[in-house]
TrEMBL record:
<protein>
    <submittedName>
        <fullName>TIGR04086 family membrane protein</fullName>
    </submittedName>
</protein>
<feature type="transmembrane region" description="Helical">
    <location>
        <begin position="12"/>
        <end position="35"/>
    </location>
</feature>
<feature type="transmembrane region" description="Helical">
    <location>
        <begin position="41"/>
        <end position="63"/>
    </location>
</feature>
<keyword id="KW-0812">Transmembrane</keyword>
<feature type="transmembrane region" description="Helical">
    <location>
        <begin position="70"/>
        <end position="89"/>
    </location>
</feature>
<keyword id="KW-0472">Membrane</keyword>
<feature type="transmembrane region" description="Helical">
    <location>
        <begin position="101"/>
        <end position="122"/>
    </location>
</feature>
<dbReference type="InterPro" id="IPR023804">
    <property type="entry name" value="DUF3792_TM"/>
</dbReference>
<dbReference type="Pfam" id="PF12670">
    <property type="entry name" value="DUF3792"/>
</dbReference>
<keyword id="KW-1133">Transmembrane helix</keyword>
Amino acid sequence: MASRSFFPAVFWGLSAILVIALSFSLLTSLFLTFTSYTEESIGWLIIGVACLSMFIGGFMSGAKAKSRGWMAGALTALLFTLITFLVQFLGYNEVFTTGQYAFHGAYLLLAALGGIIGVNIASNLQK
């Protein structure tokens, strides 16, 4: 595996996560603005979409990397966690809570699993 194909693959996965997250945030904010629902009432939907976006991002990075999918997916999740931590710490002067560490640990596992599946599906499609 050449590093020239590995790191762009990770950034493709990270880009997919950010696009999905930002798009869903826009749709959710519009939904909450024009309805009587609260953020607490759709909390499980938000968590589900976050988990799905991490899996898709890991899948994309694994498929593009074509090998070491678990590493591509895990690195994608770690970069997302770093960005989230920096925004929260530098922008809001708050550190991660124990619950957030648990969520980001689950994101790491989901993205690594997505990377593994992405490598296997991409290699099966090439045959």
